[in-house]
Design brief:
Blueprint lengths: L2 E6 L2 H9 L2 E8 L2 E8 L2 E7 L4 H13 L5 E10 L9 E9 L21 E2 L2 H11 L10 E8 L7 H11 L3 E3 L2 H11 L3 E9 L5 H23 L4
Parallel strand pairs: 1-4, 1-5, 5-10, 6-8, 8-9
Antiparallel strand pairs: 2-3, 3-4, 5-9, 6-7, 6-10
Helix pairs in contact: 1-6, 2-5, 3-6
């Protein structure tokens, strides 16, 4: 049976999922600890990548090459930037982009990696399944899930001016620090991917205080959605 890889950057984003694994087996590889097991009859490999794009890309590459996963889900938290999103609302990626990569001087579009498209396209089947799965969660009554673009960079966005610039250039629904790098690695390895994010803050001047307050709750909410999602894929 094919394996599903699940990546979270922080311990709070994976610990609940890891606790649900049946017959878990751990493997240390490339400075990471991968936990294999089953949930609801699905074979999973769960791993904490660490924060940032390089950590995330290395993690996705390891899942593809060493563990042979058939698809990858990146679960976690993000700062809301569009779509009328509020704290504890969700985003399922349609595509991902680097908001901190710019080599327009050489004729590339903002965020574009030379030799690749400007945006990394997520798996539509998985994104649609996430919307269906969301309807089965306790969050659906008071919150919403949107499909759309997610922007990633090696910085925590807590400044309204920076947020507005990212919105103007990339028009994402949310910003975070790993998704596009995972999308990049998955695209090169031809592994379908989905980035799922629960909003922990509004990526503005109050971002740090709000983030600290909501980090654990938003991370667990995202993991709860993953539990429902894996039933459908």
């Amino acid at each position: 049976m094919s394996k599903i890889g699940i990546i979270g950057a922080m311990e709070t984003e994976v610990k609940m999922l890891r606790s649900k694994l049946e017959n878990p087996v751990s493997t240390d590889f490339a400075g990471l600890t991968f936990f294999e097991g089953t949930i609801n009859g699905k074979n999973l490999v769960i791993v904490r990548s660490g924060v940032g794009k390089v950590n995330a890309a290395l993690c996705a590459q390891a899942l593809a090459l060493k563990f042979g996963v058939a698809k990858i889900i990146n679960t976690g938290i993000a700062g809301a930037t569009g779509g009328g999103l509020k704290i504890f609302d969700f985003v399922a990626s349609t595509e991902a982009v680097y908001h901190d990569l710019n080599i327009e001087f050489f004729g590339y579009k903002p965020g574009q990696v030379p030799g690749m498209e400007p945006f990394f396209t997520a798996d539509k089947t998985m994104a649609d399944a996430a919307v269906k799965a969301f309807a089965n969660t306790k969050f659906a009554a008071e919150h919403k899930i949107l499909q759309g673009r997610i922007a990633s960079g090696d910085q925590f966005i807590s400044d309204s001016a920076v947020k507005n610039h990212i919105k103007e250039v990339f028009n994402p629904l949310c910003v975070e620090m790993e998704g596009a790098a995972i999308a990049h690695a998955c695209t090169l390895n031809k592994v379908p991917f989905l980035i799922l994010r629960c909003m922990s803050d509004m990526a503005d001047d109050a971002g740090e205080n709000t983030y600290n307050f909501n980090e654990d709750s938003a991370a667990e909410a995202s993991a709860q959605l993953v539990l429902e999602l894996i039933k459908l894929i």
